[in-house]
């Protein structure tokens, strides 16, 4: 006969280990004699808890462990608990903003048993993510405690730290788990704040800052640079040690370095070919590769945010083309003009870092960053489409017009499309292997880490050995002595100085906006980074770097999407979790290390000197375009703007229960998305305009989106709705 189920829930505040001494006492008293069962193979909550109970009974024979009392205390449906177990008490992490956003990767249950002389704790890590029943899906860590809610609250607070939980899962033995929990508790007891789902919860009594007694922050030039430098120097040693502190970290660093080579090298080659066409070979593939490893090694050692990847970009290629046209039209030396514009622009950028103009970026909201991210992804897709059209035009158009020879080779465009989409499909398939049920978890992670290199090499072999007689597009090789040389920019004629300054101002704005938008994307709180940002310092380092690149005739570079975001993801440990109404891959821990980018660009040195002529033969440009498509698709993961675009074509009853769907009328959500789409269309129209002079206003348009969001948009959409959909972070 059906029965009634009575449930009561309440919010339990996380323990503040700094002000509540009981937390550290609980850990000290219970961890050393805790029963720990690693990688338990059971998948039923009833079996898991009874196994832990049995191990506690065996370990402490003098205690009176009564199984019947235990079942009555732990399970609310005691007579049928083996079939449909339900727990009297459970503790889980809850975001407080989304009803559905409960962290389901761990659970704490507790009970008060009569007859026990002291408190006991048992902990189990599960071998695989396991569905434990209603509201306990995909749990990996289960903890059972005695002494009711307070001890459960202590250890529940510890498990809120995703990084700690990941370390517990990967622990090699029980002693390492004990050390991890003890060290984490001691660390929390010494900190000003605790982290809950990656969000800092501050103790109001200890809220200290740099304000003076009058309540205002002292301002002076270089203040931001000095603060950034001090913050980064405190973590500089760990920037290297974090990449080698355990076997998993070493494996991640190696796989990430290889991943970066297979993403950055194709990007460099593609932009090299674009610049070669725009400048008649003055800036070419070899120059881009040379500048790439020089600039990235420089920033890798001296930059602030070590997860940033520097690269030349499409907007920078546009500026180089404009400078080339101006120089050719007026009879000025291109490299002298190029170097002068670069030096002037970087001077402006240095002043912006000295006077803390990067602080203005605090007014950017999620929408501005996500529009820019979608634009970059769309730009990659457009480049792929243009490449397909180019190959089709040169390889198949002659067949239609009955022209023999090189203009009639239908195999070339067909092979191009096969290699392009094949590379994209295989890389996406392998990277999704992480969520499959095959092999063990660490083997799935290992295979997924090498998804892109595997796909590139597989289709490179297919192309080279299977279709060796089919013509393939290759890039041109230039004499190496022209790759880099000192440019006497001070000989630029006087009448060219004013145009150079005029070109430098929008270029400085482009560097400023792109660099900080990429940095904000990486520093997003959802990525759970711990070492802090260095906006002012990074701008300063990028400016110094590009002065050197300018006077040696090498292409400019700054932080680039999606490479930087993909670098962050490659160094992350992730979990599949119910988040914002979707099963999403959520970052739980990031290894904030410089080693991956340093290793990758160090390997690019011998590639530049010895392998460039062979790359153009072995890996055709079609595979590079497949990499671009993979990068575009991967960068859209977690982008709320892209998700809202898909909502427009989604049946209403299938909408996910995200926080803004429940707080904002559907009409307003779609209205905001359409406005974002119009902004994106403006960026595309300007970024891909036929005239390069129109493309020069690209950074100014991006900057204009910020005041538009704060002053114009609230006239059409209520402020509370805007905050729900597009709050600052």
From TrEMBL:
Q: How does it sit in the membrane?
A: Multi-pass membrane protein
Q: Which Gene3D superfamilies match?
A: Helical hairpin bin (1.10.287.570)
Where is it found, in Gene Ontology cellular component terms?
basolateral plasma membrane
**Tagged with keyword Transmembrane helix:** yes
According to the UniProt entry, the coiled-coil residues are: none
Q: Which UniProt keywords apply?
A: Cell membrane, Ion transport, Membrane, Transmembrane, Transmembrane helix, Transport
Q: Answer yes or no on keyword Transcription regulation.
A: no
Note the PANTHER family from the entry: ANION EXCHANGE PROTEIN, ANION TRANSPORTER ABTS-2
Protein's UniProt name: Bicarbonate transporter-like transmembrane domain-containing protein
In its UniProt entry, the species of origin is given as: Caenorhabditis latens
């Amino acid at each position: 006969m059906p029965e009634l189920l009575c449930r009561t829930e309440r919010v339990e505040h996380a323990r503040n280990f700094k002000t509540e001494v009981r937390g550290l006492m609980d850990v000290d008293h219970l961890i050393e004699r805790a029963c720990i069962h690693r990688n338990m193979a059971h998948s039923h909550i009833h079996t898991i808890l009874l196994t832990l109970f049995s191990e506690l009974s065996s370990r402490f024979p003098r205690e009176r462990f009564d199984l019947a009392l235990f079942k009555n205390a732990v399970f609310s449906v005691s007579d049928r608990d083996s079939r449909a177990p339900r727990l009297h008490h459970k503790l889980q992490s809850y975001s407080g903003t989304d009803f559905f956003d409960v962290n389901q990767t761990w659970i704490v249950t507790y009970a008060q048993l009569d007859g026990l002389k002291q408190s006991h704790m048992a902990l189990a890590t599960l071998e695989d993510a396991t569905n434990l029943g209603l509201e306990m899906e995909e749990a990996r860590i289960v903890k059972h405690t005695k002494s009711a809610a307070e001890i459960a609250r202590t250890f529940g607070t510890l498990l809120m730290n995703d990084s700690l939980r990941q370390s517990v899962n990967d622990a090699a033995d029980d002693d390492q788990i004990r050390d991890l929990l003890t060290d984490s508790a001691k660390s929390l007891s010494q900190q000003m704040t605790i982290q809950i789902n990656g969000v800092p919860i501050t103790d109001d009594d200890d809220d200290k800052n740099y304000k003076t007694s009058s309540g205002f922050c002292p301002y002076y030039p270089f203040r931001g640079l000095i603060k950034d430098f001090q913050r980064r120097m405190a973590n500089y040693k760990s920037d290297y040690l974090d990449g080698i502190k355990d076997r998993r970290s070493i494996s991640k660093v190696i796989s990430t370095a290889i991943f970066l080579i297979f993403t950055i090298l194709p990007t460099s080659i593609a932009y090299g070919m674009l610049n070669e066409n725009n400048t008649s070979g003055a800036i070419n593939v070899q120059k881009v590769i040379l500048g790439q490893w020089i600039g990235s090694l420089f920033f890798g050692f001296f930059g602030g945010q070590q997860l940033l990847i520097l690269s030349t970009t499409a907007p920078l290629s546009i500026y180089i083309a404009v400078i080339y046209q101006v120089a050719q039209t007026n009879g000025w030396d291109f490299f002298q003009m190029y170097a002068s514009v670069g030096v002037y622009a970087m001077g402006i950028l240095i002043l912006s870092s000295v006077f803390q103009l990067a602080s203005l970026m605090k007014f950017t909201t999620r929408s501005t960053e996500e529009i820019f991210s979608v634009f970059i992804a769309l730009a990659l897709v457009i480049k792929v489409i243009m490449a397909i059209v180019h190959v089709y035009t040169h390889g198949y158009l002659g067949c239609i017009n009955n022209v023999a020879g090189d203009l009639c080779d239908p195999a070339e465009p067909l092979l191009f499309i096969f290699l392009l989409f094949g590379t994209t499909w295989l890389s996406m398939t392998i990277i999704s292997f992480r969520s499959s049920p095959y092999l063990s978890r660490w083997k799935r992670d290992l295979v997924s880490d090498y998804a892109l290199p595997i796909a590139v090499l597989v289709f490179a072999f297919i192309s080279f050995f299977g279709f060796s007689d089919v013509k393939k597009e290759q890039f041109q090789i230039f004499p190496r002595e022209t790759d880099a040389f000192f440019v006497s920019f001070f000989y630029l004629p006087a009448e060219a100085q004013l145009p150079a300054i005029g070109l430098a101002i929008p270029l400085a704005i482009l560097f400023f906006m792109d660099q900080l938008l990429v940095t904000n994307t990486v520093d997003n709180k959802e990525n759970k980074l711990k070492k802090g940002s260095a906006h002012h310092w990074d701008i300063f380092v990028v400016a110094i770097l590009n002065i050197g690149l300018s006077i040696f005739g090498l292409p400019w570079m700054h932080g680039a999407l999606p490479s930087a975001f993909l670098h962050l993801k490659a160094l992350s440990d992730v979990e599949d979790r119910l988040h914002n109404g979707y099963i999403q891959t959520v970052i739980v821990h990031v290894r904030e290390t410089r080693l991956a980018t340093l290793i990758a660009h160090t390997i690019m040195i011998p590639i530049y000197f010895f392998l460039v002529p062979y790359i153009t033969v072995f890996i055709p440009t079609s595979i590079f375009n497949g990499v671009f498509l993979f990068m575009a698709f991967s960068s859209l993961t977690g982008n709320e703007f892209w998700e809202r675009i898909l909502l427009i074509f989604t049946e209403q009853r299938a909408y996910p229960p995200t926080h803004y769907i429940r707080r904002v009328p559907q009409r307003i959500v779609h209205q905001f998305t359409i406005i974002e789409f119009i902004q994106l269309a403006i960026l595309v129209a300007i970024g891909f305009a036929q005239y390069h002079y129109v493309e020069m206003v690209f950074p100014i348009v991006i900057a204009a989106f910020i005041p538009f969001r704060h002053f114009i948009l609230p006239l059409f959409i209520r402020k509370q709705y805007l905050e729900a959909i597009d709050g600052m972070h």
